[in-house]
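Good morning N.,

You mentioned wanting to compare the apo and holo forms, so I went ahead and generated the holo version with magnesium ion. This is what I fed in:
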Amino acid sequence: MTNTSPTPKFSRLPDHLAIVPDGNGRWAEQRGLSRLDGHQAGAENMYRMINYLNEYPIKYVTLYGFSTENWTRPKEEVSGLFQLLENFINKCISEFCEKSIRLRHLGRLNDLPSSLQLAINSSVELTRNNTRMTLNLAFNYGGRAEIIDAVRRLVAKDIKPQNIDEELFNSYLYTAGLPDVDLLIRTGDELRLSNFLIWQTAYSEYHFTKVLWPDFSKKDIDKALLSYSRRKRRFGGL
Ligand code: IPE
Ligand code: MG
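and this is what came out, ligand included:
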C-alpha cells in the first residue's frame, strides 16, 4: 500500500490517536430513529474514519467501542452493540488485510458472547503481521479494570515490589508495546474521559467537539489534527 497523502499541512501528527466516539443516541433521537440506528450510523462512520486515518502516517489508533460500564444499558442495546461489532469485523477484515491494518483488542474478552470472541480473535490473528497502522478496539474496556487486571497478573507472577517501575507496569497493561496516547478526541459534547485509557493519557492533548459521532467528518478530524500540530507539549518541563 502506497502512502497516498501525508498532507504537508500538519507539521506534526500524533503517533497514537485515541477517540471516544460519543453521541450516537442523540444523533438518532434528533432524527426520530432508534438508538440502535444511531449505533449503526456510528459504525458506518467508524469505517469511513479508519479508512481516512489510514491515509495519514498515524501508527496507532484506539477507538472506544464499549465500556465496562455500558453493560448497565438496556439488554437490547447491549446485544445490538455486540452484533454491530461482529458485523463490522466480518465486513472489514479482508479490507484491513489489503490496507495493512493490524487489529488489536483492548479489554476483557471473556465476558463477551462466544461468536464475538471468535470474530475478534480470528481477526487479531489474521492481521497480526500488518504494519501500516494498528487499530486498537477497546471493547468491554475499562481503564480501572485494565489496571486491576495488570496488578493481578503482577501479583500472580510474584514480582518483587522493588522491581516494579512504570516501564514494567506498562508491559502488563492491555496496551503493552503501544506508546502513550498523544491526542485524545471526544465527540458528542461531553467533557470527560469516562474511564478510557486513564494510565496512557497522563500527558495527552485533548480535543473535545460538539459534533455527534455519526456526523464527525474528514473536516472535523483535520481540525483536531491541526489544533494538535500547533500545541507545544512540555511533559512537565519548560
Ligand atoms: C456512543 O454513543 C456509543 C457508545 C457508548 C457505545 P452513545 O450511545 O453514548 O450516544 P448518546 O451519548 O446517548 O448520544
Ligand atoms: Mg454517550
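The radius of gyration is 18 Å.

Happy to go through it together on a call whenever suits you.

Best,
F.
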